[in-house]
Amino acid sequence: MYTILPSICFGNTAAEVKVLHITLIEPTLQHLLIALELSNDHQVLIIDSYAEVGTPSFQIGWCRSASCFDTLLTQPEVEFLQVSASPEGYGFRIEWLVKHLVRKCVSIGVDVFSRSTILHSKKINGKVELTLQSPNN
Known about the structure:
Layout: E1 2-4, E2 21-25, H1 29-38, E3 43-47, E4 62-63, H2 75-80, E5 84-86, E6 89-91, H3 94-107, E7 111-113, E8 117-124, E9 127-133
Parallel strand pairs: 2-3, 3-7
Antiparallel strand pairs: 1-9, 4-6, 5-6, 8-9
């Protein structure tokens, strides 16, 4: 069982900030970036129905500047994306960017459940409890 909060609220002081349990379902690139950012202070769980997060890919690998990878990936990881310049920006293999980010999430403590389905959810005392079918549990 995992608990998710229906909304995220942060206090003004460190004493007011609670550790939140954040669940991201069917993660996109944006979800992974959120997970990387929030996992320093909160518990983050990613649930994906596919065997591998990022496959199949439903997003387009494109950015305006090749420097967008500088803080996220190592140089060998960037090379693996096969970044290609065009007049409008840069194309790259989005599925490999997602895989690199998932690996980074796992390395810093984010739980990732692939091949998982939410069977049931119920709200208890303002929290949502999920029941999963997963090879991970």
